[in-house]
Amino acid sequence: MRSVLLVPTALMILAASGCAKQPATMPASASAPSPGASAGATAASRPQPMPSQPSAAAGGASSSAAGRTDSPTAARPSPRDFMANAALKDVNFDFDKYDIRPADAKILDANAAWLKTNGRTLLLIEGHADERGTPEYNLALGERRAKAAMSYLTALGIQANRISTVSYGLEQPVCKEHTEACWAKNRRAHFLVKPE
Fold this sequence. Notes:
By secondary structure, this protein is of the alpha+beta class. The chain has helices at 2-18, 102-117, 135-155, 180-186, and strands at 50-52, 83-84, 91-92, 121-128, 163-169, 188-195.
């Protein structure tokens, strides 16, 4: 009887010790700590950006907030392969939100029109956040912002397989002052392109 109990226990220990450690990022559906929480992590301990790539089965959504894709064999360009294009404008977000505001919807409408006339161009949407909140929280928030912009564009007819998203959280601010006006500039989705 004792040996019967030891086998399942040993299997559980082996399974637990063989699991890979995942970064401490929060899935978009999980509840998150207040963004006013301290962001006391050092630059060396901050998580890396969370790239995600579209999946045909999921309509372009990634399988997790940690950046894994549903199709590991699908080769997508690296974020370094994309460049800015003056025709595509950033959209901004309210504090701790990822809803597309009416004024930003007009910007996305114009971005979609440009993408339709440049149908062989691939798009990377970067999600960004201001400095308030933890690095993990801001990575998840940046991911939700990039996905919101992607969803809007796909609803306008842009093919999901042309779009990739990545979140940089608070890591790449366009403004470094500690004011609301500056933070508002950092809460954004930024668009980069790569000709196919």
